[in-house]
């Protein structure tokens, strides 16, 4: 146990400026998302570019692909939250149906297995299947976030649970620790958005 703490401490001291920067900027973006703030998108854009460079350096190629996806969806999400609602008003928080949610889970499993197999067979990717879980769940979560769906937080919880040990195994101890915060934040995001959704539903019913 002592050796493990020594190893973690050494890893934290060796944390690169790139890793620090990517995590701190993305931390701000995630906090803003929990607060249902449109500013989550432009801060997130900066963070994902930094993470894309970081993940390419350590050969987590599924995560690199994910960051490219984030760039495109962040630009759209920024517009959608601001002008994507009825009559180009702010987009409200809504929910997906039970059937849609089940479909997302089934699709996620299939894409994870397929993309993981591709990485395993045709690249030198590290932890291809586990990395693919992070990528696939993140894609679904991001799509739901773009449309301000409450269930986005369910998939962010999955992402964080898998990412914490994955990044620790790659000696990204600072990033792994930040993802512990992201996990807590995802639970809080679900609770916070659920309150906002219910409040809006009550106002519409009056």
End-to-end C-alpha gap:
58 Å
What is the 3D shape? globular
Q: How many structural domains are formed by the residues?
A: 1
C-alpha-based Rg, rounded:
18 Å
Flag low-confidence runs. none
Assembly form of the protein = single chain
What share of the residues lie within helices?
over 70%
- What is the residue-averaged pLDDT? 86
Number of E-state strands: 0
**Mind summarizing the main beta sheet?**
none
Secondary-structure element string: HHHHHHHH
What amount of the residues lies in strands? Answer: under 5%
Helix count, DSSP H or I runs of 4 or more residues: 8
Question: Given the helix and strand composition, which structural class is it?
Answer: mainly alpha
Characterise this structure.
It is found in: Cell membrane. The chain crosses the membrane at residues 6-28, 40-58, 64-81, 101-119, 125-145, 152-168, 174-193. InterPro entries: NMN_transpt_PnuC. It comes from Deinococcus cellulosilyticus (strain DSM 18568 / NBRC 106333 / KACC 11606 / 5516J-15). Its main location: membrane. The protein is mostly helical and 206 residues long. It has one domain (17-86, 98-205). It is built from 8 helices and no strands. It has helices spanning 2-13, 17-34, 40-57, 61-83, 98-122, 128-146, 152-169, 173-205. The longest helix is centred in the C-terminal third of the chain and has 33 residues, at 173-205. The N and C termini lie far apart (58 Å).
Give the key terms.
single chain, globular, NMN_transpt_PnuC, cell membrane, transmembrane, transport, transmembrane helix
